[in-house]
Write a structure and sequence with these properties.
mainly alpha; 304 residues
Amino acid sequence: MTTSTGAGTGPRALARQRRRASVARFWRQYRAERAGLYGLAVLALCALLALCAPLFVGSDVSSVTAAPGRPMQSPSAAFPLGTDQFGRDLLGLVIWGSRVSLLVGLLAAVLSVAIGTLIGVTAGHFKGWYATVMMRITDWFLVMPTLVLAIALATVMSRSLTTIVVAIGVTTWPTTARLVRAQTLAVETRPYIERARALGGGHWHVMSRHVLPNVMPLVLAQTTLIISSAILAEATLAFLGLGDPTVVSWGGLLQDAREAGAVSAGDWWYLVPPGIAIAVVALAFTLCGRAVESVLNPRLGVSR
């Protein structure tokens, strides 16, 4: 009897219980943020459309030779969003383009946050000349226009989705690095950090077991906010002709519409759907990010 009770209340079991309780508490507080719920619902719908796109529209939706309609048809029952310059169904292209835009935005945000977290945690922990050098590099990236740096990288590298992800990720990390370093400095002053060092904990132990778990809520909130910026950056680079011409994305559709003269011809159905998709998804990620930030740091919220 004693053995079973001890097994059920061991350190790992208690840790799992705390994690489940923490997740449940987070979800209760998140549900109180109505704007965050709206954003989450929109993102869930967009993710479902992106995952099920092959079932809805098929992989041949981007084929020029198998286009089902005439070029530049206005919206109709057969083509709810009209057709593009090749006669392809724009509704199918917008749904298929969500796969690339969301994937690039997510990967670029993960890369950006990973770089910023690594530099922020190490600079806050080691201090000295290392922190000085890293923060000067961070300041240099902060004062440089992010879009200009991304365009420069996308220009000198091959035109592919990997290039877009790298160009966005390596130019948008400084804000995360600054925030994470400030949080790391605050965590490092707490008594349990000094106790861990006194018990023989090395640099890696302190950073991975004590500092990183305490800065992860900030990292999570920052990730959701950066994804929206990454999606906008991907659309901008694709609109400027620096994206991968072999894939369909929302920014690529806007670039195709510009090349086809949709602006001067007044073919609004070629421009409006991908533009609205970009704006709605970016807004949804921003709403989710603000809600997560408000839950994880209640001092930022408005008391009810």
